[in-house]
Amino acid sequence: MKIALGVEYDGSAFHGWQFQGDVRSVQELLQLALSRVADHDVTVHCAGRTDSGVHATGQVVHFETGAHRSIRSWVLGSNTNLPDDTSISWAKQVPDTFHARFSAVGRHYRYLILNQQFRSALWRKRAVWIHQPLDESRMHIAAQKLVGAHDFSSYRALGCQAKHPVRTIHSVAVKRQGSFVSIEVHANAFLHHMVRNIAGVLIAIGKGEQAVSWAEEVLCLRDRTLGGVTAPPQGLYLTKVDYPAEFDIPESAGASQIND
Fold this sequence. Notes:
Alpha-Beta Plaits; 10 strands
């Protein structure tokens, strides 16, 4: 049978999602925990491979197993074998046609900024600290030029291995709640470092270092070397993955969300 899971993790102590053998990864620890419950080796496939330091409140994964366990056992048994920076929030048997990555039709990311004069000890690995005042209204206006289907070559990593740079952004919103500024991006799919590069451009605009028109100008250049800085990883969260209704995938029951 095929089982899908909702997974939440603090990426601070991980070298990204993908198993690499000699460093700590989310995939490795999740596979070890599930293998103990299943009593056989388990391979896990995810909706989106997150980089080192990046978090998730709504990651979706799947695995195949011949072991018959209750849904409660998959969740509670696996969590018992996981470290406290990783947690399974739900489990569900899914059809054989389901694939966590290839069945996804949309993904949601949040980039979280702590915008205040002094750094925070508690948020140092879960938000990016910007001490200069940010104008979130300018950032939001600039971000609207990225909505739609575009060639995002200027907003992807130089080493990105995607076959083509065209992605469709359904919405971008920049919001403030007290000292926190969040950048919410919903797209059909993302390129490597795409959200962090968008955040880097919008932060420069929010500081007043660049004009509001710069986000669109960078997009039109289609050249990553002219695209500004890549924002740090600790502000980035994978918050939700969209699937066709036929799979009836539940929403994450993870941690409470800033600005929700």
